[in-house]
Amino acid sequence: YKAVATRLIAVFYPSCIKAVTTVEAEAAGEKFRARGTVLVRLGWQILYPDLYKEGGQSKGGSRKKASSEEESQVMPDFQIGEENAHEPRVEKHKTTPPRRFTEATLLALMETAGKAVEDEALKEALKDKGVGTPATRASIIEVLIQRKYIERKRKNLVSTEAGRLLVSLVQDERLKSPELTGDWEFRLKRMERGEYDAAQFMTEVTAYTKEILEGTSTKTIDLKNLGPCPVCSAPIMKGKTGYGCSEWKEGCDFVLWEDTLGTRVTPEMARELLLNKATLLPHPLVVSGKKVFGHLTLGKKGKVGYESKEQVVKSEAGENALGACPVCSSDVVEGKKGYGCLNWRNGCRFVIWKTIAQREIGKDIAVQLLEKGSTEELKGFKSKAGREFSAKLKIEGSEVKFDFA
Q1: Residue 123 in domain
Q2: Domain identity same for 117 and 162
Q3: Tens digits of per-residue pLDDT, 3-54?
Q4: Does the model's pTM come out above 0.85?
């Protein structure tokens, strides 16, 4: 009640007047700027004494951090062009990180596509450009938690290493922008009302997708600079059998072997390791003679390790399982376009496609592949030129390949 009454009374008080002084100076060729604010008349703010120190200066930590500390200092009188000796000093301060999101604050930002809006009229105008709908926003957060991109820590929502890594690997800034999602949601709502053409929307989405794919395909990894050396920070470059430090002649002996823990480290994986200290996706590894499914990690002083992602997923209806995944031992089941691993949500990408080189792959062939690791010679494959050929199929690592032997 008191807060509402005070706010109502404040409307009838005179304006608050401040004198803002900005000083730009130069010393030894370096430019400096100082700024200070002095309250000339408190006006309506006299009703809020807790906001200010004695003498009318604003407190550093109050008023939602609206003013910086440098703006709250009293400036002396200056004359343009004046020079004077002074004793410089260095003041140390610490910045305060923004508060972590809670489910409530994140849901509020999703309403306005990431824009922090307090004005109710503006919030109403932006509600059609939000991320998701009131019925789906909470489930979007739950999906992110299930996929291990964020996690709950008490009341807060905190990004995981996998989530941060995924964001860092997405090159197109618009694709990571909540404004883009909000704009697409807005267009979909206009379609519902018959105000926007669906064909036009799909044309724009297709063009944008092609733009992203073309940009991705033209980007090549610099094999002479895959990332900083974890030992000396010099560039890491690709060699014949691995990835080594460019300062090896100066004595740095860091090397990431191409064959590490039973998996082939590609340039992309090496870059992920060097920049993010872990691979984005888990891979089939061999540790102490045992098969493990996990992420490669890069520790202190360049020590390569792994983080187990061993989570075997079994089908509730065991009869639907065609066999065990050769990568993570989870069940492989039939899908719409292929026979895939049930552990796909945790990163396992093993799949046997139902159509390979224009030839249909039936359940019997998929079962044979899973049980024996290869098939008998199959006829009916067609090359891109339309020529028929015969070949065996075999599982190699996490991929299904042709065997012409």
Answers
A1: yes
A2: yes
A3: 888 889 988 989 888 878 788 877 777 888 887 777 778 888 888 877 655 4
A4: no
